[in-house]
Specification:
The protein is mainly β and 110 residues long. The chain has one domain. It contains no helices and 8 strands. The strands form 2 sheets. Strands 1, 4, 5, 6 and 7 form a 5-stranded antiparallel sheet that branches. Strands 3-2-8 form a 3-stranded antiparallel sheet, with no helix packed on it. Strand 5 and strand 6 form a beta hairpin. It starts with a strand and ends in an 11-residue tail after the last strand.
């Protein structure tokens, strides 16, 4: 897998039916409605393999005056969004691609 410095996500607000493209860099936190999405890693298959992008995301819901609640932490797969999906009544978030991909440090792709 190739390492990406960022990720491209799609976010759906089920109330308004609006889809928004979300771009994050490694370690960055982005606000989408009441959600705070943090990208921890993004990996993409090399061009000679079947297309695949995976991202490790941490998603926290913030609803004042309540404390923030971590509602998702794990890998999301572009080719199989239902495999590891955010389950939320208002929002859907899924991975579409990695940005600025390069070979893993030291030549190791795993």
């Amino acid at each position: 897998m190739l390492v990406g410095s960022g990720a491209v996500l799609q976010g759906l607000d089920k109330i308004t039916a609006r889809v928004r493209s979300l771009e994050l860099e490694f370690g960055e936190t982005l606000v989408f409605g009441t959600l705070r999405i943090t990208l921890r890693a993004c990996r993409k298959a090399p061009p000679e393999d079947a297309p695949e992008a995976v991202a490790f995301l941490e998603i926290t819901e913030v609803r004042p005056p309540q404390f923030p609640i971590r509602i998702f932490s794990g890998w999301m797969f572009a080719s199989s969004p239902a495999l590891s999906a955010l389950e939320h009544p208002v929002y859907d978030v899924w991975v579409t691609d990695c940005k600025n991909v390069s070979k893993a440090p030291g030549g190791n792709s795993r």
